[in-house]
Write a structure and sequence with these properties.
globular; alpha/beta; eight-stranded parallel β-barrel; disordered N terminus; four-stranded antiparallel sheet
Length: 630
């Protein structure tokens, strides 16, 4: 007998299996699962009757995502998921990503099934414009077999140049959208905008009207800081932009000020008191300053909002945004019985892979106890909890890790990845983990996998994910690390010798001393590359447990004054000019190698964006060694 445990989760007619194997034995089902217990792993066999096979939200009705129509959703219970990881998420300090990384994340968000991808703020810089345009052209035209294709959105202020730039960036998508905004709270209008309420309304109406004149039919409008705005003024400005042609009204709790009861009341009052509000889609955008962004988003949806704006891992300005994975899984598990039947089109088995990709690319680590995707989310250390888990996993897990695509170990399918494993086995495991890699990428990852497998008996899923993300997170290689050697100890000056391959395929070598081996390696790299940078942040974490664990290193750099004239300053959505920082990530079993690779990755990003390649080559001539044989 085969038992399948599934629950309704709005997966375009699909179900999610809870990763259980079962067989008939003495009139009961035997479930075998592999899971974390404390910091290690163990196999468990538990017995459960058919009455135990109840998953939260276990409606088995298959659903098909309603056709996308701007300003209208034919299924009154369907909630659109608007992901702003690539826009608001990238505004987190230090969360810079390359254009290729943004494109990779957009592809992954499409796999995840988000309805709208806010790809960026196109007017911020030429690089941001090109990244949004590339996402609109590729991801915005990739139609899935069921007809789904994500809406590609660009953010814009109400200025004509911003609006035109945003439309030019997204218009090649099959479903383009422009999201424009202006502040409506008294404090913002008085001190930031220095506009009267009437002037703010006129700006908003002009922006929507101008977008319509450009040919944009899907227009989202946000009254910034709506959570602290006068409700009567909100009704007025929202009704005017509806008349002008807005199709989605987004209600932001910009400062994370509202409580859930307060925010749900605001949504209800807007729907009831704004003329035309029932003919458009109402959206939420909740910041996490008081830790209430997910609660407020769910409260808004319960009150009638049918679009929720959120980010992967909850990254974003200040304390971050509503976390997509928390919002989605709350609706998946409780939407049917506690929220009037709400559901989404998200495919949750891609959540884990998407979370890890965003963490690696943005350089923003996920706290271990983070709901859904944290390292401890499915770990059980308490003896009482372990006893319950061994008897029936449902005692302490309201979902299985497999629901979100987190595989507990290759041993579950009879495959243990080790030094004798072949490339096909590695490729198959990557597919199971949600990664589509090209032959060239697989070849590079396999080479590093074999090097690691020579040092470890078994290579874990976490190791594999770190390796593939390390390969993908490296910027276009202006400089490539070939060798690094360090000498250090209590009795001498730490010394590092580094060999780099430059963009002209010439090897360059340099040695330096420092306060430690990593500092010495960085100084040697600086002497070759020839660019002055400040190290803003350096952090390291173990990928797995044990003495043979991979080290995952993250560095953040910014150019020094000597190169400031060459950098591209970035303007954020609030109009503030900030100096761009560059993040590098790398993984290796050697901490010095991981540190050097991460530093070079950040340098390569800076060189690519700031067009400093020529300066770097000229500055490195003194360390020239010899041409590299082809």
């Amino acid at each position: 007998m085969t038992v399948s445990i599934a629950h309704q989760n709005g997966l375009l007619g699909n179900r999610v299996r809870f990763g259980c194997k079962s067989s008939s034995k003495n009139g009961s089902a035997v479930f075998e699962r592999k899971a974390r217990v404390g910091v290690g792993r163990c196999h468990r066999v538990a017995r459960a009757s058919h009455s135990d096979q109840v998953a939260a939200g276990a409606s088995l009705t298959n659903r098909t995502r309603p056709d996308y129509i701007p300003g209208r959703i034919d299924d009154p219970n369907y909630v659109r998921i608007f992901d702003t990881t690539l826009r608001d998420g990238e505004q987190s300090p230090g969360a810079s990503m390359t254009s290729e990384q943004k494109l990779d994340i957009a592809r992954q968000l499409s796999k995840l099934g988000v309805d709208i991808i806010e790809a960026g703020f196109p007017v911020a810089s030429p690089d941001d414009f090109e990244a949004v345009k590339a996402i609109a052209t590729e991801v915005g035209n990739e139609v899935h077999p069921d007809g789904y294709v994500p809406v590609i959105c660009g953010l814009s202020r109400t200025r004509e140049n911003d609006l035109k730039t945003a439309w030019e960036a997204v218009k090649m998508a099959k479903r383009p959208r422009v999201h424009t905004f202006i502040a409506t709270s008294e404090i913002h209008m008085k001190y930031k905008l220095r506009m009267t309420p009437d002037e703010v309304i006129q700006n908003a109406v002009n922006a929507v009207t101008y977008l319509k004149s450009l040919g944009c039919e899907d227009i989202e409008f946000s009254p910034e800081d709506a959570g602290r705005s006068d409700p009567e003024f909100l009704y007025k400005i929202l009704s005017e932009v509806i008349k002008a042609g807005a199709t989605t009204l987004n209600i932001p709790d910009t400062t994370g000020w509202n409580l859930p009861s307060e925010f749900s009341g605001l949504i209800s009052k807007i729907i009831e008191n704004t003329p035309g509000a029932k003919d458009v889609v109402i959206s939420t955008h909740c910041q996490n300053d008081l830790g209430l962004s997910t609660a407020n988003s769910l409260a808004g949806a319960f009150a009638g909002a049918r679009q929720v704006e959120c980010t992967i891992n909850g990254i974003g300005e200040r304390a971050g945004n509503a976390s997509l994975e928390e919002v989605v899984m709350a609706i998946a598990l409780r939407g049917e019985d506690q929220m009037g039947g709400l559901w989404t089109g998200i495919r949750p088995n891609h959540i884990s892979a998407t979370s890890k990709m965003v963490m690696e690319y943005s350089g923003m680590p996920v706290q271990p106890h983070k709901a859904i995707v944290g390292a401890n989310a499915f770990a059980h250390a308490s003896g009482i909890h372990q006893d319950g888990m061994l008897k029936n996993p449902g005692t302490y897990e309201i979902m299985s890790p497999e629901t979100i695509g987190l595989q507990r170990g290759a041993g579950d399918v009879g495959v243990v990845l080790a030094k004798l494993s072949g490339r096909n086995a590695l490729g198959a495991r990557l597919k199971e983990l949600g990664y589509d890699v090209s032959e060239a990428e697989l070849r590079d990852v396999f080479k590093r996998f074999k090097d690691l497998a020579d040092k470890k008996k078994v290579v874990s899923d976490e190791d594999i994910i770190a390796l593939v993300n390390d390969e993908k997170s490296q910027a276009v290689a202006t400089w490539t690390l070939r060798d690094v050697q360090v000498v250090c100890g209590s009795a001498g000056m730490p010394t590092a010798t580094v060999r780099l391959e430059g963009p002209d395929s010439v090897l360059r070598i340099a040695s330096s001393v420092g306060t430690g081996p990593v500092d010495a390696a960085y100084k040697a790299i600086d002497s070759i590359v020839g660019l002055e940078v400040d190290l803003v942040d350096y952090s390291m974490a173990s990928v797995t447990e044990g003495i043979d664990a991979l080290a995952n290193t993250r560095v953040v750099i910014r150019p020094c004054n000597a190169t400031l004239s060459s950098i591209q300053l970035v303007e954020n959505a609030q109009g503030a000019i900030r100096e761009r920082t560059y993040t590098g990530n790398a993984a290796s079993e050697d901490v010095v190698v991981a540190s050097a690779r991460a530093y070079i990755s950040a340098l390569n990003k800076m060189i690519s964006v700031c067009k400093l390649e020529k300066t770097s080559i000229e500055a490195s001539e003194s360390s020239r060694e010899e041409p590299v044989n082809a």
